[in-house]
Amino acid sequence: QVKLVESGGGSVQTGGSLKLTCAVSGVAITARSMAWFRQGRGNERETVATVDRDGDPFYSHLVKHRFSVSKDIGKNTFILQMSNLRPEDTDMYYCAAREGSAAWLDEEDYDDWGQGTQVTVSS
Questions:
Q1: Residues 36, 48: contact at Cβ < 8 Å?
Q2: What pLDDT score was predicted for residue 42?
Q3: CA dihedral angle for residue 57, residue 62, residue 64, residue 66, rounded to 10 degrees
Q4: CA nearest 30: which of 58, 49, 3, 53?
Q5: Nearest to 35 by CA among 47, 20, 53
Q6: Alpha-carbon distance 106 to 103, whole Å?
Q7: Phi and psi at residue 49, in whole multiples of 5°?
Q8: Nearest to residue 4, comparing CAs of 20, 22, 19, 17?
Q9: Chain centroid to CA 78: how far?
């Protein structure tokens, strides 16, 4: 079975950085589209940044130029490098995977999920 485990969350001040890591087991990340979501305040999780199965990244306008997503093929991990963090970035962040080639999709389109890691940014 596919298992995703997030790590790297924590508390930082405005302008700080965090690196979130999603450790993937049960499947090669090259065979999956991957996404980082955050809980948000609505009834669906918000898509933050993705890498599709072809390796193309996509970003929410809220994080573009501040966050970077990548796949570490050798470690079979999925990385979200977050810089210039803002208080509004405070949330629970989740790693997700899907078999299909498209990545910029909604929560319900993803098949496998981690438990989440908390990011807190103080003013």
A1: yes
A2: 87
A3: -120
A4: 53
A5: 47
A6: 9
A7: -160, 145
A8: 22
A9: 8
SS3 track for the chain: CCEEEEECCEEEECCCCEEEEEEEECCCHHHCEEEEEECCCCCCCEEEEEECCCCCEEECCCCCCCEEEEEECCCCEEEEEECCCCHHHCEEEEEEEECCCCCCCCHHHCCEECCCEEEEEEC
Q: Which two tokens stand for residue 110?
A: 């993803």
Burial 10-39 (b: 16+ CB within 10 A, else e): eebeeeeebebbbbbeebebeebbbbbbbe
Beta bridge partners of 25: 3
Instruction: Tell me the per-residue pLDDT of 14-69, one tens digit each, with 9 for 90 and over.
Output: 999 999 999 999 999 999 999 999 999 988 999 999 999 999 999 999 999 999 99
Give yes or no for a contact between 21 and 7, defined as CB atoms under 8 angstroms apart: yes
